Amino acid sequence: MNAHASRIADATSHYLPTDAALTAPALRSFFRLAEHWDLRVAEQRKLLGDPPESTFYKWKRELDGSLGRDTLERISYLLGIWKDLQILFPDPAQADAWLRKPNTTSLFGGHSALERMLSGNVADLFVVRQYLDAQRG
Fold first, then answer.
1. End-to-end Cα spacing for the chain
2. What are the domain boundaries of the chain?
3. Residues 2-22: pLDDT tens digits?
């Protein structure tokens, strides 16, 4: 790496948040979202990538801990889904209810978006987010 590229890399690292810096805001946002969507503990854990029960409760209690990139990515998709729903449905209750309603779109095959999201695969969170982004236009 030449000196110029090295200076750019050093400067960039000062402006990009670390995973540790994102942990507390990500967890606060996730647990507010889970409350808003009335998610059971099992659903919350599944959406977060099935962390051990003790880890999950530590995150919930302390809003701190070590979140891996996978968990941060999952929370990011979930927050994007929430945002899309708020834009698509002017009534917040309707936006929240959409998540659990059966959907006849081939993507969901008569199941709810939440059922798809609870498969455990981060790709399913991406697919739901992508679907809602497309609906927004």
1. 42
2. 18-136
3. 565 555 555 444 544 556 678
